[in-house]
Amino acid sequence: MADRPAAASVIAECLREQTLVPLRSTLARAFGRSPLSSESQSWYLGAIGELEVARRLERLGPSWRVLHAVPVGKGTSDIDHVVIGPSGVFTMNTKHHEGKEVWVGAKRLLVNGQRTDHLRNAEFEAKRAAQRLSAATGTPVAVMPMIVIVAARRLTIREQPATVCVLAESQLVDRLTTGPVVLTPSEIDAMTDAAARPETWHDAPVLEPVDLAAFDALRAAVGQARLRRRLWIAALLLGLVVASWMPLATLLSGPSS
Question: For the whole model, what pTM was predicted?
Fold first, then answer.
């Protein structure tokens, strides 16, 4: 588990969906059409969010342990990140809401005004992690659920929920490292040993390899398509500006003599 790459599960699903997507034509590539299908795009965005959170978690010091894409239960569910350190054990549910308005109250989390199940799911995830870690270590383990909001246009926290911590990705490391110390180094090591065993989490663990190179190539193709679209938009705007100035320039020049 310790070597499992971040976003492994969602990357695998994204690539699986991409195998069903026809290759873009030369014209489509030239005009910057995204290589993603509507089905693979949600998995892709999820992966980008998890990778961003993983990048930030790398800033934690040597007293911290981080596991990514932890398969849990009997099916295909996983926990985006499990973090163990001096201030406790945390499960993290990454939510990539790029450009959206996120509002948090004591009992609800809204995205662009729409209710979500984020709070309920995060709480359930932490309870399941606590049960499995407690069983694996033979001692009660408290787990704090976190929801990490990535790339939101605005995150408004009217009131923190009582049982789930919601924060932006930029706040994550400070929140973890400034909390009160509740675990000793030996407790962290014991907890990490248990958490690193796949059987702690899943009833029939199978950790399939993930083609990270293929995802990197897809990510590059998405970036190139986005750049081409922006260039076409810039060219169109420039053309409109030039076209609007031509009649004015003709008027200002006056009739030729």
Answer: 0.90
